[in-house]
Amino acid sequence: MPIVLRHNAALELSRVEYTGAVYARDLHDHAAFNAANPDWLGFDCISVIHADIDVSAINIANLDGVFNAHRELFEPLNLMFMRRSGWVCESPAGQRFLTHWLARRNADKSPWADVRQLDSFEAAGEWMLLSPADTATLRSGEGFKDIASFRSSAAPTR
Description:
- The structure is a single chain.
- This protein is of the alpha/beta class and 158 residues long.
- Helix content is 38%, strand content 23%.
- The protein has 5 helices and 6 strands, in the order ββαβαβαβααβ.
- It has helices at 24-36, 60-74, 92-107, 121-127, 132-140; strands spanning 3-8, 13-18, 44-49, 83-89, 113-118, 145-150.
- It has a 6-stranded mixed β-sheet with strand order 5-4-3-2-1-6.
- α2 (60-74) links the parallel β3 (44-49) and β4.
- α2 (60-74) crosses α3.
- The protein is globular, with a radius of gyration of 15 Å.
């Protein structure tokens, strides 16, 4: 599955995995799921872009469209909490898009999330104030239950 949302109840932490071929539609569907299920937005989250991600079907214009749709989905929610949303990127190809996304996101800060890229799971664990054992759990993904997955059935038109 290209995008999978997982959650660890004991850590009260979500983890989103990006792997394989990802399309702009997948990114949009993930955002739409979160907007329709805002309970999942109440948890801190680490998103992981794995080394095997294939972003060849996405361009910057697609990503900007997803970003704009993301804003339209979340602004009406008037979220009243603060959460941490960290990214760990293992892919040079994915890094290009993550850098663009974070630049847009940081230029247009929302009051409900602190978003940043972290160099490693250890840095993510430190930022999340996790113990070394809990950081190891975050790194391994052990104990994280699948909540939802997002995968386009066909490549979107450009």
